[in-house]
Design goal:
The structure is a single chain. With about 375 residues, this protein is an alpha/beta fold. The protein folds into two domains: about 130 residues, Rossmann fold; about 190 residues, 2-Layer Sandwich (Dihydrodipicolinate Reductase, domain 2). It is about 35% helix and about 20% strand. The strands form two sheets. It has an eight-stranded mixed β-sheet with strand order 12-11-10-6-9-8-7-13. A five-stranded parallel β-sheet has the order 2-1-3-4-5, sandwiched between helices. α2 packs across α11, α6 packs antiparallel against α12 and α9 crosses α12. The structure holds nicotinamide-adenine-dinucleotide. The site of nicotinamide-adenine-dinucleotide has 22 residues, from loops.
């Protein structure tokens, strides 16, 4: 299954082929990102609503298909991109493994940790790759922050904080019936803040326990529009997650800050895209270049999604695991499941754990039956 190809000229001739399943909001970002690359192409589009696929196909001149079977047979993709509502990812992936194609999956990989374990087992059995779209990991200031952490520049870690203060009005939730439901989406912690939760865990390391409170303050949805979490990491440091879509009148920030005994870094902006503070006790060559070259995400639509695909393609050709493979994608979902479990029962949850009272990924009837 793994092809090792380093020659760029050859790579341009045998482009990696992606076929999209789900042609809603996020699909055009994936197409825009892939179209920038010489060694990749989108070879087909499928949506359960054919008109949606057709409209997108016409906009970008990409063939559309009436079924995934037909698309796989005709366009021979290397990857199937799962861009359907979050609560559909598990069923979709499990159904489509029969084609033995690799997967790109939008975040979150699936809603329940036990579903992810089944996905990983099945894909592992078939040697199928999974890449989860946590594209913010490729934001230049984030890449530099991770580099500083890996170099040990922070010393002993003290506190990691992520904040998402966005504004989503009722019209946003009403536009898609799946949004804000327990069965298909979850609330702000699963949908909007899953990037920030992924980021905090990636920066700070394994989590020992979480304690959470959630509330539905302004949105008329099933799940939460606001949540706060306190965390303890295995290395002894503490963490805070603050997330809401009930900021008014407009979006305020999406940020991460890491504090250690020898330094502080804060990255803010709307999607952890702008360096705000870079301050270390001991100087390093990267201190100048970080401000000159890496302080912001370039102002180009879906820039970091293109970086996500570059990493995926390079790793595919060199036969190594991508930055956000299935196991990486599992981490934030396990945390989110633990956060909901804690909010539901009002107690600290130690990881690893098996969800019992977490409503995410369940209809009311399933929850009432399973949590009796
Ligand atoms: N990475 C990010 O920053 C980011 C941003 C937005 C959304 N997302 C994620 O992308 C996913 C989709 O979100 P969206 O906003 O594009 O949703 P959307 O509702 O706009 O689009 C989903 C599309 O999937 C189609 N669909 C549903 N079931 C299907 C099936 N069984 N087979 C084929 N098509 C099917 C729908 O008809 C719809 O066109 C979600 O998981 C969401 O969390 C990620």
């Amino acid at each position: 299954m793994v092809i090792q190809v380093k020659n760029m000229a050859y790579r341009k001739q045998i482009k990696v082929k992606f076929a999209l399943i789900g042609c809603g909001n996020i699909a055009s970002k994936h197409i825009t990102a892939i179209k920038r690359l010489d060694d990749a192409e989108v070879v087909g589009l499928y949506d359960i609503d054919f008109q949606t696929a057709k409209a997108l196909g016409e906009k970008f001149s990409i063939p559309t298909f009436p079924s995934v079977e037909k698309m796989v047979e005709t366009a021979s993709p290397d990857f199937l991109n799962i861009l359907t509502p979050s609560g559909d990812h598990f069923e979709r992936i499990m159904d489509l493994t029969r084609f033995n194609k690799h997967f790109v999956v939008e975040k979150p990989l699936a809603l329940r940790v036990e579903h992810i374990d089944r996905i990983l087992e099945e894909c592992d059995k078939r040697s199928l790759r999974i890449a989860v779209a946590h594209q913010n990991r490729f934001n230049p200031p984030i890449v530099k922050l991770k580099e500083a952490l890996n170099k040990g520049r922070f010393g002993k870690l003290v506190l990691g904080t992520v904040r998402l203060r966005w504004s989503r009005n009722q019209a946003y939730y009403d536009q898609r019936p799946w949004r804000g439901t327990w069965a298909m989406d979850g609330g702000v912690l699963t949908n909007q803040a899953s990037h920030h939760i992924d980021m905090l865990a990636w920066m700070m390391g394994d989590v020992e326990n979480v304690m959470a409170k959630t509330a539905r303050r302004l949105a008329n949805i099933e799940a939460e529009d606001t949540g706060v979490v306190i965390m303890k990491f295995r290395n002894g440091a503490l963490g805070v997650i603050e997330a809401t879509t009930a900021t008014r009148p407009k979006d305020l920030e999406g940020s991460v800050s890491i504090l250690g005994e020898k330094g502080t870094v804060e990255i803010g902006g709307f999607f952890m895209n702008e360096l705000k503070t870079w301050d270390f006790c001991e100087p390093d060559d990267m201190d100048t270049t970080v401000w000159e070259q890496f302080a912001k995400v370039p102002d180009m639509p879906a820039w970091n999604v293109t970086e996500f695909y570059k990493d995926l393609i390079n790793c595919y050709y060199s036969g190594v695991s991508g930055l956000i493979d299935g196991i990486e994608g599992r981490k934030s979902v396990e945390l989110i499941n633990a956060i909901y479990e804690s909010a539901e029962i009002g107690r600290k949850i130690f990881l690893r754990f098996s969800p019992e009272k977490c409503r995410l990924g369940m209809t009311k009837a399933q929850y009432n039956k399973d949590s009796r």
